[in-house]
Amino acid sequence: MTWWCTGIRWQDGRPGIGWYGAVRAERDSPLGYGRRLAFVARGERHCLGVRRAGKRTPCPARRTVPGRAANAQCPECARLDRSFSVAADTNAADPRPYRVYLAWFGPGLIKVGITAEERGPARLLEQGAVTWAWLGRGPLMAARRTEELLRAALGVPDRIAYARKRAVRAHLPAPAERAGEVVELHARAVALPGWPESLESVGCEVVDHAAAFGLDALPAPTRVLTELVPGGVVAGLLVGAAGPDLHFADGLVVDTRLLAGWELAAPAGDAVTDVPVATIAPPAADAEQDGLF
153: Cβ–Cβ under 8 A, 6 or more apart, which residues? Predict the structure, then answer.
């Protein structure tokens, strides 16, 4: 069975590579820092269809996706996905409780956002938030109104470009300093008038992702993968991961959103010269052998 990469998956505070099989099965391959890994892209990049409520529906047309696209979906599947999107305000009747959070990515780079309470901190890991804190909890639309309140009153954005997050990640201030920015903004936010009555404020408890991301070992980025092509090989020593990014010891950064939709495999012996092959390997019959993870 063919397994298509779905990009990075954060589970219990640890990164892994996700896979989608032709019979609608999904699996993860955990990643380990300080390990050399290599992989090669095979065939064409395919649309991954639509994933909703933990289940994925394959693309009915089996379309291909451009190598530089950040989203491994064809336009039709992307539109269907967006029709059930909280971010696009197309699912206002969602009955689940939501949380509002403050996420810090670097000096002056702090944003407000919302996530379903059942997801816990997964959204913060997926975005590459270095330091963060909950701000409130309540119904979806109350959380959304609070997000808008902070944007208007405090000038806090709800989006920060990945390139900006990546650029400052290797040169961050000490944990106390970054936590201080979150604490100060949290206090200003809860003091604002106009909070929805149905949204409960949450005390400021700052969480730091330095260990989860391997921040102490990250070099400054020197190269960023912008496109994977058939036969393209990536190899190196993995030293950290943050959000969708894999960081290698030589400064290479691989945005795993660009891996999604590809079939990845171990490169041939002569394709990698000085890197012992510990591959990003799909969950096939031989995936439990030494050297695969």
Answer: 192, 194
Q: Which residues pair with 263 in a beta bridge?
A: 42
Enter the pTM of the model.
Answer: 0.87
Please choose, from the candidates 205, 241, 245, 10, the residue with its C-alpha nearest in 3D space to the C-alpha of residue 102.
Answer: 205
Tell me the pLDDT tens digit for each residue of 49-66: 998 877 888 999 999 999
In tens, the pLDDT along 156-193 reads 999 999 999 999 998 999 999 999 999 999 999 999 99
The strand pair at 252-255 and 223-224 is best described as: parallel
From 81, 9, 75, 72, select the one nearest 41 (Cα to Cα): 72
278 neighbors 36 (Cβ within 8 angstroms): yes
In 117-203 the beta strands, taken as DSSP E runs, fall at: 131-138, 200-201
The set of residues, in sequence order, having a beta carbon less than 8 Å from that of 33 and lying 6+ positions away, is: 214, 217, 238, 239, 240, 241
Cα(264)–Cα(275) distance, integer angstroms: 17
Q: Please, are residues 73 and 136 in contact by the beta-carbon 8 Å criterion?
A: no
Locate all alpha helices (DSSP H) within 83-157, ordered by sequence. 122-127, 140-154
